[in-house]
């Protein structure tokens, strides 16, 4: 689109909305479509001290993929990809559910997060030190990780009754579901870490041209390990949220194919798979677009056979709306000067 | 050409049959050695099936050798060949797919080792190659669930929502067909919504949440039917979180009878579940024993019973105690 992101942060602040326009418009369009198929879509009430409504469902169920996309967007920005996040979710969920009833909450959470971090560092070392292509390096854990999770749960659905861990599924802060609060907090933290410091620039530089960045004094290996570690950590949080949601760990299905949803969220958010510039906020918007679509399909009462086709068409429309070539064709007359002037 | 080739193979089959009948008279009634090619342990039910098979063998004084194929047909074919080489008395096969068994089952037939299919059927063209198939009738399972609902609601109007299994899975299609046909006969029962929950708890929960929102906070819903218990357990959670009482505000009926469903029924959160028994091997051992000792040829299909368990049953705790250590 444009090189506006490389401008100093203060000037970028007011430029962000224009860059985000296609995604925000898509989200709005899908929400309005949801409203059309289900008149009570925007109704938000209270049930048991918790906000209750379809819009809340979108946020609540979008949380795991949004969590994954927080890590994925950084990995993709370095030119990598992390296929293992779904399996890491399954591992951390399985561990959390197995420990929840016998250990205090901090130990449970600590262990689940630590295992995610270890998985992430493992991926990072394979990519940064052993120079294995990211898609291959993370494929190893994607396949093996689910097996590890199944070993932890012994192949069955491991349920738990600990109220501490269950809070992440059924609890709330001022009525907002816990999963949404956790994801929002993680988004703010990621933004602060990455955009509040020079880290974001270094990640972009690593993805843009690793060799030049190294010569410029950026420790690209450390950057690579760090982004995969962050991705593992985010996946572990997503795993905890998923396990808390159903009060149990389902090693066979938890996080299954969610790595693809996370990649899709990042791509919808306008980040190129080739690495370089990225947007954390828009990746989260991408995750919400995906979930708004899923929830809408469920509410529409459309026969189940149509789900994937509808989803594919909507994704196609969103991605087409972002296509620079198409934009050049469609907006030449009235908006040509506005878009053309940006770079 | 074709006809000429066929003749010897028919005589071969006939002579094989005669030989196996002769051999059968000499075989021992007890202490059979059986090779079981299991698909894997992808679900709790399958783990329970493996456990029950071992228990059955122990009870009868038979020996069972289990080969876990990890979802791969090639592994199952290897396992069957190794069972043939070991000269087992019979082979149980839970086929991972329906086709591609002709060659290896012909080898088993040539070695005069009877093959019994468990839980799933194969290509009808290969019918002569196995002794019998022990499976449940998943259309019937749906019908049993539908019948329970019809009897429970009586003449009252009732709106049903259905949480389907994975799109394209034959079990899902069959359980839907059986249930839908049963309730369609009743003018007072209507299936108002139907969506897929992919057989998982988290999808089942998400689908139920959307049903509740789309149907006036759940007030329009009288009953839920889920194609398996796991999706229903998710749905029960969704109902609770929406402030509804599953089991009384909204009736529940699902299929499988996993231990967690018994826990839910004991807690009065669920009403009924149709059992898909993990004991497919029990009838298979009986059929194999009779065939080996007396030469009795069983029917081509042995249907397992689809037992209905409801929250009104007095023996829920006993059934749960039996089931909980099977590996579900």
Automatic annotation (TrEMBL), chain A:
Q: Does the keyword Transmembrane helix apply?
A: yes
Location within or outside the cell? Cell membrane
Pfam families membership: BPD_transp_2 (PF02653)
Q: How does it sit in the membrane?
A: Multi-pass membrane protein
Sequence intervals crossing the membrane: 63-95, 107-129, 135-153, 165-194, 225-244, 256-274, 306-323
Sorted keywords for this record are:
Cell membrane, Membrane, Transmembrane, Transmembrane helix
On whether Cell membrane is a keyword of this UniProt record, the answer is yes
Q: Which InterPro entries match?
A: ABC_transp_permease
What is the protein's given name? ABC transporter permease
Where does this protein come from, organism-wise?
Answer: Rhizosaccharibacter radicis
